[in-house]
Amino acid sequence: MDTALANSRYTSDKKGIHNKYDGANAKDRRAKLLPFFWGTLGQQGQLYGNRDLGNMDEISNPYYFSYPGYNEIFTGYPDPRMNTNNGILNPNMNVLEYINKQNGFQGKVAAFASWERFPMIFNVARSGFLVNSGFMDFLDPNANPRFNFLNKLQKEVPKILGDSTRLDFLTYEMAMNYMNEYKPRVLYISFDETDEYAHQGHYDNYLNTAHQEDAFLNELWNYIQASPFYNNKTTLFITCDHGRGSGQNTGDRWTDHGKGTPQSNQTWFAVIGPDTPAIGEVNTPTKTYHKQFAQTLSQVLGLNFGAAADHEVGAAISTVAKK
Ligand SMILES: [Zn+2]
Question: What's the pLDDT at 251?
């Protein structure tokens, strides 16, 4: 919790926000806001991007908004043609599509997303893995009844983020139900609400959503650890598609991101899993880029996306997984 923003016109319930997330110092405040992130991930995993410690994580595309950001993460290639959030079809091979074609992974890759743009970003007509996004129903005649309930619920819930973006709890519950019933080997879950509330200038909603999504991650990790199918052979990788402007001084740059918003290329990522040394918050003066994630993820699975892709791919981050 940034106290300047919590005391600003961007926060309506100042008392409630202070009660929940205030603390003696920045470390106390961050632990209250994101207990799983700073507890489990910060002790048993790796956290990259704390610039106060000299560690930097950035996007390398020059646009600092969503479609270019997701293209960079999943193709490893910050293609300058991917420069819009409009529904253009992505021509570049992505790492999920590549994994879904490898032996033992066919039909075992899936994505659940709040934003409706992912079928274009992943080019589903070509790539062929399951992408459920926006207000798409999950349709499988053999699916458990819980999917029917979630399909019904997402039509009834107030569309407070408009017609193109589903609330994150629906995306999360669908993804968890899918994981439980279909046991995918690679699952991507994409949230959206923090970005929406920041654009609206609602700092309390922004923090409350971040806190809830930390709880989703905690539940997901507990599920993985308790499942004989996933336990001790599953890596959780968490990141975002871009940064935001600074909340310091006036705070007015916090709501935005993009080329005209300084520092919104600055991001972070977290990783935890059986191949990842537990170094916690990384304080080495290195800089990582999101174009390196696709190859890093393929290497964790013993695959080599870079050798198969039809375009350049950023190198794997060597510290994420032991050889
Ligand atoms: Zn945004």
Answer: 63
- Residues across the chain: 323
pLDDT of residue 252: 78
CA–centroid distance, residue 68 to ligand 1 (Å): 12
* Cα distance between residue 263 and residue 267, in whole Å: 9
Q: How far is the CA of 243 from the centre of ligand 1 (A)?
A: 9
Low-confidence ranges of the chain (pLDDT < 50): none
**88 CA distance to ligand 1 centroid (A)?**
18
Helix (H) or strand (E) holding 65: none
Ligand 1 center to residue 198 CA distance, Å? 8
Compute, in angstroms, the gap from residue 199 CA to the centroid of ligand 1: 6
Beta carbons within 10 angstroms of residue 316's beta carbon: 21
- Look up tokens 């999504």; give the residue: 213
The amino acid sitting at 207 is L
Query: Cα(192) to centroid of ligand 1, in Å?
Result: 9
| The token pair that represents 103 in the structure block | 């032996």
Ligand 1 center from residue 298 Cα (angstroms) = 28
Which of 122, 123, 118 shows the shortest CA–CA distance to 135? 118
* pLDDT score recorded for residue 293: 98
The reported pTM is 0.97
Separation between Cα atoms, residue 69 and residue 106, nearest integer Å? 26
What's the CA dihedral at 78, 82, 84, 88 to 10 degrees? -150
CA of 309 to the centre of ligand 1 (A): 29
Alpha carbon of 151 to those of 156, 172, 175, 176, 182: distances in Å?
9, 13, 12, 14, 17
Query: How do residues 42-101 score in pLDDT, each as one tens digit?
Result: 999 999 999 999 999 999 999 999 999 999 999 999 999 999 999 999 999 999 999 999
Kindly give the distance from the C-alpha atom of residue 29 to the centroid of ligand 1, in angstroms, as a whole number.
Answer: 24
Give the pLDDT of residue 246. 84
